[in-house]
Automatic annotation (TrEMBL):
Its cofactor is Zn(2+). The lineage of its organism: Bacteria, Bacillati, Actinomycetota, Actinomycetes, Pseudonocardiales. It catalyses: 1D-myo-inositol 2-acetamido-2-deoxy-alpha-D-glucopyranoside + H2O = 1D-myo-inositol 2-amino-2-deoxy-alpha-D-glucopyranoside + acetate. This is 1D-myo-inositol 2-acetamido-2-deoxy-alpha-D-glucopyranoside deacetylase. GO terms for biological process: mycothiol biosynthetic process. It is an enzyme of class 3 (hydrolase).
Length: 293
């Protein structure tokens, strides 16, 4: 009998152990935006660090039985979501997790123009320089070759996502030895095809998205497409872990969708998508580390 051990089934050619670091705004973003990617690289032996900037205290709560946790009631949602995040990280195989500045340092700012923006610990009220320095310290310690965050619009305009972009841009400019920075995005084509497929599913408990309702990026701008088809079950488990924020539906025949508190059906697609923001793109078409030597 021959025992074959395959640590890297991807063509990772780095001479030092590959390390991936992702900067996310709230607990659940790591799973929503990059869950399949995390699961895939982790399964292939890559050291994956997730940095979460806030506890997501201002999130809307889906299960009726948990609504008293809300910011305008007991204000215990942040602590509760730490547990959800821990379960999600376990499902995805995250090697290391950190909260920016330590757990509870920065608070979810809420959407644009709400009173939570003014909270003394609101992430967007803090100093960009201070937050970028906190992230730079983590980068110097973890020494990732590849860093992932959102685009300048924060993916969909949330102030905390935009701030995560800003501090990641500043911190990665300051720290050497980072080969690539990517923005996690959603593909227009994949989203439209996925939504069209959901339209044919009779038992879908969510409302279908209207044309243009879901935030997407034109496929011509996408530089890197990561196949997560072998890791969809891990991504779905991670999404289910965030049950205050995400409802997951599976039909038992391969159909799957999730919805946030707005109840709009989002497709679970077999790839995750990235735009290379910094570094050389040669070899990066299907692998965040592709071509790095
Ligand atoms: Zn978020």
């Amino acid at each position: 009998m021959t025992l074959r051990i395959c640590l890297y089934s991807d063509p990772v050619t780095l001479t030092s152990p590959p390390r991936l670091l992702l900067v996310h705004a709230h607990p659940d973003d790591e799973s929503l935006w990059t869950g399949g990617t995390i699961a895939r690289y982790s399964a292939h032996g890559v050291h994956v660090t997730v940095v979460t900037c806030t506890l997501g205290e201002e999130g809307e709560i889906i299960p009726a039985g948990l609504r008293e946790l809300a910011a305008d009631a007991a204000d215990q949602l942040g602590g509760y979501r730490v547990g959800e995040l821990r379960s999600a990280c376990a499902a995805l195989g995250v090697t290391a997790h950190r909260f920016l500045g330590g757990i509870g340092r920065w608070r979810d700012s809420g959407m644009v123009g709400v009173q939570a923006n003014e909270h003394p610990r609101a992430f967007v009220r803090g100093s960009v320089d201070e937050q970028a320095a906190m992230l730079a310290d983590v980068l110097r310690e973890v020494r990732p070759q590849v860093v992932v965050t959102y685009d300048a619009f924060g993916g969909y305009g949330h102030p905390d996502h935009i701030r995560a972009h800003e501090i990641t841009t500043a911190a990665t400019a300051e720290v050497s030895d980072i080969d690539r920075v990517y923005y996690a995005v959603t593909s227009r084509d994949a989203t439209e095809q996925g939504a069209a497929a959901l339209a044919g599913m009779a038992d879908l408990p969510f409302r279908l998205p209207r044309p243009g309702e879901l935030p997407v990026t034109d496929d011509a701008d996408i530089t890197t497409t990561v196949d997560i088809s072998d890791h969809l079950s891990a991504k779905l488990r991670a999404l289910r872990a965030h049950s205050t924020q995400v409802s997951v539906w599976q039909d038992g025949a391969g159909g799957a969708s999730y919805a946030l508190s707005n109840g709009i059906a989002q497709p679970v697609v077999r790839e995750e998508f990235y735009v290379l923001a910094k570094g050389t793109g040669a070899g990066a078409e299907t692998d965040l580390f592709g071509g790095l030597g």
